[in-house]
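Minutes, project check-in

Agenda point 3 was the complex the collaborators sent over. CS summarized: two entities, 582 residues total, and the question is how they sit relative to each other. Sequences were read into the notes so everyone works from the same version.
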Amino acid sequence: MTSLMIEIVGVWLVAILIGLPLFASMGLAAFAFVAFGGLSASIVPQKMAQAMNSFPLVAAPLFILMGNLLGAAKLTDRIVRFATSLVGSLRGGYAHASILSSMIFAGMVGSAVADAAGTGAVEVRAMKKAGYRPETAAAISAAAATIGPIIPPSLPMVIYGVSADVSIGRLFLAGVVPGVLMGVSLMVMVAIIAPRQGLPRHTFGGLCDVWLAFKESVWALMAPVILLGGMFSGLFTPTEAAAVADLYALFLGFVVYRTLSVKDLPDILVNTAETTGIVAVLVMVAGALGWCMSISRIPQTLAPVIVSAIHQPLVFLLAANVVLLAVGCFMEALAAMLILIPILVPAAIGFGIDPVQFGLIMIFNLILGTIHPPIGVVLFVVARIAEITFEQISRAILPWLVPLLIVLVAITVWPPLTLGLAGVLMGK
Amino acid sequence: MLRALAGGFDRAVALVACGLVVALLVCVALGVVTRALRDPFIWTDELSRFLMVWLAVFGWVLATRKRIHVRIRFLQDRLPDPAHRYVEIGIQAAMTLFGALVAAYAVGLVGKNHDLEATSLPISMSWLYAPLVLGGAVTALQGAIEVIGAVRRR
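CS then shared the predicted structure for the full assembly.
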């Protein structure tokens, strides 16, 4: 059955490249496997439904809903103003504020695209008004948006946790330090380029201004505190935290800031259902195809081959980084993750690498693909906001990949950066 | 006539999808609240999972109708016109085949699980598989319509 599966995987990859929607190509590959393998075809829809019949996965639509609610409630303006009051007086202050805003916003939403469309719109506008070149403003905003899925909550972490059978809470904690490091490294980069490009300072309004901005945004700033505090105090699970966060976002939008109206809800809900559908159908067919792979013993066959061919865990991690970066350039992050998890995670475990650390490395690599041509969905979003061409942003983003790649190397070679906090708060 | 029918169908699917998102949120929140009150409802977890399957399929249907599923068009978009169209016909035919297979075998699953009852809810396990019939059927129908459209565009 291993050779049958390899043949089917070959045809399936060709189908993906030709342009067949990913979910249909994966589903047809699963049907082909059961048909040629002499198994009952009803296994495929059965495994599809079972893949979705999972309580941790319920967090996915609820986090998507939260991102949509926060965006519609226009909380981003308040967060950006608070961040600007804090770090705006540094040289390149709006760039620093953009990165800090993305770090705060990352604690509320779990997607780079949501971050780019949310804080990105406000940040790019402010930077352009302050005299930044549009492509520089767009590049900074795009690079900062990648922090979104690394600092918890994170949609890719929910999908990885469910697919690789890893604790989502542990993955969330593992993302905190790398997320902060990403922010700090981008700020160092701003500090280096600011004098060269003559990036302006924002006048410091004094502590009074900081206090006013804080007071205006304090309810929004409480969202990550409630979310992460509730989760890690054991009050609720990550899935339940998502529901609590939704209710809190509704409370902010309807009661505190009154920026949401009932008229906004249908669009928010339909958008949530659509995004859920795009992700969920991939998870469903990946469940069916993953079952076919396990029956054909592909992971069990490939993992020892990889382990015996590479020998060293570090070499495996570096090779995995190269492969994942390349895949991330051409394939949507969640889809790539679902395809690669059954192959790479068993191999990582074979090398004695913690699947939580490997999950962070995988997500980090694939998220970098969202700010890298030719696919680069985040680049498309910020290019539209900054009113520049995709080619301009593709060139401007290149230097900003350097600090992020340095953080990637750091989390690859030093596991405590990802596993340390989870170890302290949740035990070994 | 057909266009009005499709519009009505899309609105109905969107309405049900909105209801499912709200129901899912309420159900998970109920689980948290009742546990905090030390009188937890035992059925919230299972109901959330059933709702998740339904929401996933309704979202899948919405995304299919709007043609926004993930696909790599990089190579196809570089093909000259006739080749591009033939590839598109092939892709949509494959979508039709996939949808039809899912719908057909999901009907069988609904029948087989009719007598099985869920663990904490007084409902049949068929409800877990029933939405796949809709998801598969809409995918097949949409694919078939796209094939006809691509053939006519000649």
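Noted in discussion: Residues 23 and 281 of chain A are 6 Å apart (CA to CA).
Follow-up: revisit at the next meeting once the mutant set is ready.
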